[in-house]
Amino acid sequence: MQFAQTGEALGASYRFGERVGSGAVGEVWTITAADGRTLAAKVLRPEHADDPSLVERFVRERSVLLGLQDPHIVTVRDMVVEGQRLAIVMDYVPGGSLRDAVKAAGTLGPADALNVTAEIFDALAAAHARGVTHRDIKPDNVLLARPWAEREQGDVRVSDFGISDVVGERIRQTTGLIGTPQYMPPELISQGRSGPAGDVYSTGVLLYELLAGRTPFAGPGTDFSVAYRHVSSRPPRIPVADAVWEVLDSLLSKDPAQRPTAREAASTLRRLAPGLAGASPLDRTGAPEDFADVERPATVVRGAFTDDELAAFAAAPAVEGEVPELGEAGSATIVRSMPRRDVRAPAEQAPAAEAGTPFWRTRKALILGGSAAVLLVGMVVGFVVLAPAAQEAAPAVAGQSLSAQLQDPALPTGLTISRSAAFEPATGEVRLTVSYAAQKAPLSGDFLEVIPGLAGSSTCPAATWEGGSVSRNQASITGLDVSCGWKVSGLDIPAGGSKQVTAKVPVAPADQQALDAWLRSGSEGTRDATADPAVKGTAYPVQRLQGVEVRTPARVVTPSPLTITVVPVWAGGADELNPLYVSPASGRPSQMLDAVAAGEKGVRFSDGCGGALAVDSSGLTVTALQITPQCTVRATVGNFTDLQSQAFGITSRESSGN
Fold this sequence. Notes:
By secondary structure, the chain is α+β, with helices and mostly antiparallel strands. Helices cover about 25% and strands about 25% of the residues. A hairpin with a 2-residue loop joins strand 22 (about 565-570) and strand 23 (about 575). The protein starts with 8 loop residues before the first strand and ends in a 6-residue tail after the last strand.
């Protein structure tokens, strides 16, 4: 069915051009705007556009989608609601999709695959920072500004942000699945909801496909069979470098809390890509016949077996790790690892033969195993069909594990803070992981982290920390009078890298909403404290520094060194009393400069007046050479680039006193 015709009007401002694609959600057309621009329009299928609640939800999401601006995201320009037609107007990206590139090439070279995927993670990081989750990452939704053979860095554009969130409920009702089974994160299948970590997982599947020519769980069976392998099976190892496989393994972790954030993943892939520049693409191979199952604890109840069978079973290797305390009972329970496996009975096995057969091959074991498998598949299908949409997560059932992730926008110093929280009812604690990532410059020093109580609680919880030296924030020393604040020290974050600290916090959120609110409260409390304009002093410079000013005397004589003072700018204004750096330097750099720019090596000056200044080879000492009435100095300080001083004059010694 075709939704439009060439030349037909779309709303009051557009006309249809050519159809360039179609999918489960709708068709994509080129359109011409009133000002002559060529754009693209995704026209949703009638079953979506005829749903009043979906249209209302789409209009409600309009401001979010229109506000999602990033170089790696296909920009949404407009939305048209017209009778039976619902269309999303966006930039036209002419280079085709990543799916086209995969079809043509089969597999990509490791360096190309990592670089492309890093740009996808850039787009995800920008969206996640605005609270938008894609939920359908796949090669079809990754477009290229130029054809693959002509590609350049920065050509990747991720499309369809927000569309899965908007039409997800409808898709669930009609198909039972949200997203594409090959790329679905395990928590979406088992729990019916997914967040930013789900996008990271799907992008890990995409990276695997770029390298191997197939997705990790492709194979025989229905969509449900393929989808359930994300929950039950390990991704088959492919012959890539160990460092690349470690990244893939972390991206494809079954536990959302163990996956890196999008920004962390982008940084890691960019670090690995240069070392793989000469590596050849892998040969494309088919899916394996069998998939290795994930080890999961299982229980065996005494009443189901004879004493001899139970004794034989108990003699098998025990489950690794801590065995739960089961207490005293009339019937004992044995715990050991029981991976799922396909067990086929002999074609004509007589009952009498069971007497000398190991227990695991007896008919009773086969019946029990088959029943358990049927029950498990039924539970999964029930979760997928009946669970509410991810954006409207149901309250957690008592005793249910919970997880949440949150990423703050990047700070002027280049610091990005990401937080993930995982609640385990068995311990009654939230495991909070805080990741600090740097951009162009190394970062260090002290970091503030606020860990509040649950909503309605005025008590600051205790926390047990790992990964750094952590103590309570002391307002009398730092000047930040913030409730529930901690000082994290001992972290040296390399440029383009990240460091993590972990805290075990004795709080027990009642449901997913409570955990989300708690994580958000800590993030907002930290940002509010470090951005308070009333705070004086130099504590926590990596989080508090808003800008840098370059100061020089109004006049300098030639030839002589130029005194340059680099002044920190806090939320409350410039701080002349505590300069970051003074050139020519004497003594050690300030601790602030060490924290935000790794000391003098993060500072560089340059001539801003056409040869009137000379800069030595270190980039730190500037000498006035030529007389000029107006001159400036340019500077870079860590992540702060394109800095420039106010204009000053250069005079001769004879005229300096006039």
